[in-house]
Amino acid sequence: MTMLARATLVLAEHRPETVSHAAALMRDHEAVFLEEPPDASFQQMLRGDLPVEDYVLTLDAEYPAFIHSMCLALRELSVMGISICQVEPYLEHLVAIHEFFSSGGSPEKLDPHQPQYEVYISEKQATAALLDFYKTATAGSFEETLQSVKRFARVDSRRFLLRDRMRAKALAPMIRRFNKSYIEAGQIHYLLWRMLRQDLRDPVTVRPHFLMAGVVKSLSISPHLYGPGDTLTLRYIFRPGLPDPMEDLLAARALIYNKVIRKDEMTDGNEPYPHIRDELQVIEVMKQLTLKNCAELFPLVRKATTDEARAVVAHSLRSAGKKAFPYTE
């Protein structure tokens, strides 16, 4: 190990349009640490013993196009001699818990002194808060729904802190074996770079890198890809337990944002970055909404489809002389 050893925490979402950028950066590293639990089928796919298409089918993936493209890229990187490892202990424990329960185990049989129990409690609290949000968002008032959003975000922030602590601890000894390491992470895991820096110290330099920052800047719509919900959660992560003067407005905007953002994988031959452009435009649209605007829009969009909700929000904004969708119109 030399004093020049470095680890790059690469922050990006799982979208097909990010794969080429990620693969290009991965080629400049000796090791790639993926944000997923170890899977024997994954190693078979890397070796070419399992077709990529068959591997993707085993995952029931939320973003199959992304997974398919990334697997093809990872295969090429593996052939080049780059070490590719799956490291996500929180999710690994979660898989083990599900297997334990499916084989007849119960929560009472989990050892409260083991990490699995901590993961179980974290997931139990997050699931309860999420179910409460869904129930409230369906039939509760705007004010009640706002409170449920904030409760879930606070619980979720604690879950992310636990997940990042576990991952930093697991990654540190592995990273020390390489001079250049690429660490995959979703954008919500920004604090992970500080945890890694603390665990690794010298002689490994750790730096965060927003994978699509160049694309975001070139589109000149919004300076970042953090929607109001993620922004609220990050504020709770960095300032746990402290009052936040922006939390009501961010929670209110998150309610509307979640109704108008496009969630399915998009492909458009005329637009190389459909997800990023849509996210940036929606983020900018949300910045125009006041708490009162959100309260007025919420009952109109709470049971609407994405397209219906976008139409409602666009009409409201245009009536007020503000920009709607697309934001650049």
Contiguous low-pLDDT stretches (5 residues minimum) are none
Shape verdict: globular
- Main pleated-sheet profile: 5 strands, parallel
Helix content: 55-70%
> What is the helix/strand order?
EHEHHHEHHHEHEHHHHHH
- Strand proportion: 5-15%
Q: Gap between N and C termini, in Å?
A: 53 Å
Gyration radius from CA atoms, angstroms: 21 Å
Major sheet: order of its strands?
Answer: 3-2-4-1-5
- Write down the overall mean pLDDT: 93
Alpha-beta content class: alpha/beta
List the total number of helices: 14
Description:
This protein is an alpha/beta fold and 329 residues long. The chain has a domain at 6-92 and 165-219. 58% of the residues lie in helices and 8% in strands. The chain is built from 14 helices and five strands. It has helices at residues 19-26, 40-47, 52-59, 64-79, 89-102, 115-139, 142-175, 192-200, 213-219, 228-238, 247-260, 274-286, 291-301, 306-319; strands at residues 6-11, 31-34, 83-86, 180-185, 205-210. Strands 3-2-4-1-5 form a five-stranded parallel sheet, with helices on both faces. The radius of gyration is 21 Å and the shape is globular. 32% of the residues are buried.
